[in-house]
Amino acid sequence: MEFSSRARQKHLRLAGDRRELYPHSLQFYLEPPTETISLVEFESFAIDRLKLLKVVENLGVSYVRNTDSYNTKLENELRKLKFPYRALAEDDYEARRKDHISHFILRLAYCQSEDLRRWFLQQEMDLFRYRFSQLTGSLMQKFLEHVNLSFEAVSEDLKTELENELWASTPGLSLSKVKEQMFYKVGLADAVDLFRTRRVFIKDGFAYVPFKEIDAIVLNNYRTKLSRALALTARSLPSTQSDERLQPLLNHLSHSYVGPDYSVQKNTGKISLEQIDALSVKSFPLCMRQLHRALRDSHHLRHGGRMQYGLFLKGIGLTLEQALEFWKKEFIRGKVDADKFEKGYAYSIRHSYGKEGKRTDYTPYSCMKIIMSNPPSQGDYHGCPFRHSDPELLKQKLQSYKIPPSGITQILELVKGMHYQLACQKYFELTHEVDDIGFSLNHPNQYFTESQRLLSGGREPKKELSNSGNSQQKNNSQESMNSNPTPTSSNTTADTELEELEAYFTED
Ligand code: SF4
């Protein structure tokens, strides 16, 4: 892919129509795009795919895959974001192109670490599984031929000859079903999973796979290809990292969160310092509750904690004067005297409010940023407890917060599956006694806002899972915060400047 500058190419499609590249709505994404695209299109495609994958993640946890509700919700999201949603549509060239390009952009962004690769692979697999299941028999056949996975159908005569063996070796099929079902001869390398779990008949180096199991073969093949491709892409990262236009965008995407940035806060000055203890119990997400507790207990936080918690407090509405008073009061109860506080800490607090240095108004951290960057070390309290705490410690913490045992089990299951934000949503539901959180959690400040709205009776908990990966944008009260959720170069600049700000917080 080549990229053109934003100023010259705003929203222009730069390449001609390349319809012949996409004979099917479904793709294995074997060839990277070679056309020139504008940076604007690059960003918007990537953000839309990220939204789609977040919905895939949410649905995968909330619904049984391949059920009607799962399929309907996923199709709605595909339609809304203008990705291919119907195998038969002939005129979805633009959607297929967007699907292709956006997959490769996120592949670049999400190959950068083991965690990112695992998350991306899981969501892309689920998306592929759904799309494959929507193909008609003939389209499936065409697709398999296209990706060189066409398998030889077992003739009726051979099937009759082998029917007892097929029946005995294929769990879940009665003899009559064996007679009805098509079987395919598949090389053992392609049928490893079925072979390993003893779910197929093997003869002369071929697995005899019933039609209903072909999706397992295709998915396995896709998984192998994609996971290899991610490893290869990771190896080519140094050349991408040298592109100064691309790298900030890719970093932003991999830490991305598709919602308001909470840097503009309507509640400024509406929260008093005396309320913070009570709010930390009722309305803070676990990461901030943990930081608040640590601050109260030890009268100090190391710089990672001060950054994460300080910006969160700013986001919920603390004014600069309140922040200075809050931190000072707490720190001088510990080992820091007033003079040292003024010299060592007050400047950095003013800086984070845009009153010093470059006067940038800093943005509170999103969940993705907290989860993916700067993991806590010994003596640190920042990070996301669902991601960074030992499961046993997390369990004890949840017990001490009176979360019921069944809820703790659900949370730990989600954590085990690496669904950290969904674990946090479950924590919200349990602490607020609602059946369904009704929004997709992406930001600690969003957690706080939604909690306050719920506790003040400002909203009824929704019973339906929102299909959007970014449903809080639909709330009128938040729309004004950020009408364009797409990370822009200004977000990227803010990230760079945030790094600079961190330098001011180096004193532990
Ligand atoms: Fe905090 Fe987000 Fe982790 Fe929840 S998921 S604890 S809000 S970082």
Concise overview:
This protein has 508 residues and is mostly helical.
What does this protein structure show overall?
Residues 454-508 are annotated as: Disordered. It is a single chain. This protein is mainly alpha-helical and 508 residues long. The chain folds into three domains: 20-145, Transcription Elongation Factor S-II, Chain A, CATH 1.20.930; 149-218, no CATH class; 274-461, no CATH class. Helices cover 56% and strands 4% of the residues. The strands form two sheets. A four-stranded antiparallel sheet has the order 3-4-6-5, with helices on one face. Strand 5 and strand 6 form a beta hairpin. Helix 20 runs antiparallel to helix 21 (405-416) and helix 21 runs antiparallel to helix 22. The protein starts with a strand and ends with a helix. Bound molecules: iron/sulfur cluster. Iron/sulfur cluster is lined by residues 285-287, 367, 370-371, 384-386, 420-421, 424, 444, 447. Iron/sulfur cluster (SF4) binds at residues 285-287, 367, 370-371, 384-386, 420-421, 424, 444, 447.
In order across it, which strands form the biggest sheet?
Answer: 3-4-6-5
**Helicity, as a percent range:** 55-70%
**How is the main sheet built?**
4 strands, antiparallel
| End-to-end separation | 44 Å
Multimeric status of the protein: single chain
Ligands bound to this protein structure? iron/sulfur cluster
